[in-house]
Amino acid sequence: MVCTHAPAKAEQTLGSNAEDEQMNVMILAAGRGERLRPITNEIPKCLVEIRGRSLLERHLRMLSRSGVRRVVINLGWLGEKIVEVAGNGEKYNLEIVYSDESDKILETGGGITKALPLLGDEPFWVINGDIFTDFELPINKLRAGMLGHLMLV
After folding, report:
1. Using CA atoms, how far apart are residues 49 and 107, in angstroms rounded to an integer?
2. Phi and psi at residue 95, in whole multiples of 5°?
3. Does 18 have pLDDT greater than 70?
């Protein structure tokens, strides 16, 4: 599904390696992870491991390989554990900043809205922190004037 804002001609590559075309990414990681209980009683859902590596680490490594440099992670349930693992992003060759929702988890739309000042004015990726996928960025092109591209996993 692609949402368009206006007729478009030019294309912008998502996840490009060019410095002036780099896109920011938001990883949604604030939720409680109810469907993964009791595992998520002790760890945030994005830190659940599959084949020896957490979902978050998988995302961060993929984003780094794709040329992304700035990642915003929203924090809620056990968010301090996410910070302990990801830190400032240096070990992934990324800059990681956090949007704290520990006082009140804002759900998807509210979490993204709160993080907008950290994400900037250009298009950005949003990735659910609790998905397991092997896709790599860039996966598509966003034509000028498009509001976004939705890919469901």
Report:
1. 23
2. -105, 115
3. no
